[in-house]
Protein 1
Amino acid sequence: RKEVEQDPGPFNVPEGATVAFNCTYSNSASQSFFWYRQDCRKEPKLLMSVYSSGNEDGRFTAQLNRASQYISLLIRDSKLSDSATYLCVVNIDDNYGQNFVFGPGTRLSVLP
Amino acid sequence: DTAVSQTPKYLVTQMGNDKSIKCEQNLGHDTMYWYKQDSKKFLKIMFSYNNKELIINETVPNRFSPKSPDKAHLNLHINSLELGDSAVYFCASSRDRLGPDTQYFGPGTRLTVL
């Protein structure tokens, strides 16, 4: 089983739609969680951290379920500019320091 | 100001050559990383350095050798390049190696081996 798995996608949604991405991780020692966004031919950029209580940033809501080892990202009122690949990232802090493990990404296309 | 910079942005070379990619960060971070993103877009960590010391060395061929002259720089040297080395290589940095933190990525170096 892969360490971090995500919805395979791609997701093609109309502008204004609500879309949700799922991510599961296998290592129960995982300590911190993030969603990154990667535009085509660009570097990954932090979208938001994911906190145990769930957190919201504008149209974006992230949730974490440690018991199920599951993370989600909800995007409301999708914009054309939201089109990108969304990467789930799990950080395991072991004896060697931080180890960031990236999921394979879910591609989103928001259509006019 | 560019936080994490890489050079070159594009690198096209023949099989068997030796090449280097440079990375610099001006964020004052203690930890730097090299990642490889292949044609399937999977981002995999290759190396991690904390204060000039290697702390993670994932299973990569020993043709790849990271070098960190100081904590603001982490260069990647590749010997005897192979076709399978073609990928985008991203440098990244984070504040330190302890506790939850985020990573900041450079723009990537697109390596094509012919």
Protein 2
Amino acid sequence: DTAVSQTPKYLVTQMGNDKSIKCEQNLGHDTMYWYKQDSKKFLKIMFSYNNKELIINETVPNRFSPKSPDKAHLNLHINSLELGDSAVYFCASSLGSGDYGYTFGSGTRLTVV
Amino acid sequence: QQPVQSPQAVILREGEDAVINCSSSKALYSVHWYRQKHGEAPVFLMILLKGGEQKGHEKISASFNEKKQQSSLYLTASQLSYSGTYFCGTEDETSYDKVIFGPGTSLSVIP
């Protein structure tokens, strides 16, 4: 069983469209995250949720909206996609509190054309 | 603030050793280390918490000098499977559970 699963794995879409990425973890972790990895491999934190509550909201355009229906799921919705949104988006989870490592999902490669 | 990693890239022959360094300008609570292979997700290696402890498993170990806000990852007797990009991630004392990753160190092990 996959610990942190993301869907879809690949997403190709046109500028201006709206798209969602889904993430689910079966590890029983309390905290989930979204990270963006650009073409230079920089991993940048976007959001974190602890037990459905938004904890971290970095300087991210408000076209990006996370939603956590329960502590096992964290979805990312992106409105009005732009070319610069092209990247690999990773979901991750951890037990939280800063004392534990993160388990990453396999990533979603988003290409905006 | 993003931690600094050095070197940017290193090429090793099988069996050689390597050290990857990570430093921050902020007082740190913890340092994480991850390895990412091409086209895959980052994989957690270890976490070092404030206290200057050293950790390790098999031939990969790490140290954390909290006074200097530095950590080092030691890879001994490298194997082909060690190839990948190594990221350190730091949590500072004012923002627990917010890991900021360094730019990565590309490590290639050749036969």
Protein 3
Amino acid sequence: DQQVKQNSPSLSVQEGRISILNCDYTNSMFDYFLWYKKYPAEGPTFLISISSIKDKNEDGRFTVFLNKSAKHLSLHIVPSQPGDSAVYFCAASANYGQNFVFGPGTRLSVLP
Amino acid sequence: DAGVIQSPRHEVTEMGQEVTLRCKPISGHNSLFWYRQTMMRGLELLIYFNNNVPIDDSGMPEDRFSAKMPNASFSTLKIQPSEPRDSAVYFCASSLGTGLGYTFGSGTRLTVV
């Protein structure tokens, strides 16, 4: 049973528009969340994080929102650029631990 | 900083053969993780070490899989005997152990024929 779900396997967005990637989790003990980006033939790279004491964290074009009651988080990319085309993984851990559970990923394609 | 270094980048082997994947974590990182990525299951944690000690190996699929970390700068993941269903990309990652996330290596693409 997946504890971290990314129900959209893929997403296509026009350049300049907003990309919204969603992630749901089932374990109420999760309190720290990360987003990773992965290009083909490379390892995932850290993008942005959020802890459960916040509901929003922003870094440049990337914003992560956390809705604890809904056990849902989302990553917003504004504006989207072709270089953002990659697979995005959501990951969660409990007790701010190191054991992160990853979602299956969403492949984002930003069309020029 | 060279990052997390994995070798080989690609491995093709015949079913039944032993396969050894290698990882050199970032110097100073005290936690090391082995993940497997497949199309069906995404990124799965196989095992992780803290200060060279295995902490959680519940993700290791079966006894054919074993991992060691003899020192702070080296870890191996061994599959013996290998099977076609082991074909996947295997990632190693390391962290400072502060819960801030990991740095991943570039992965080893394993194909078992």
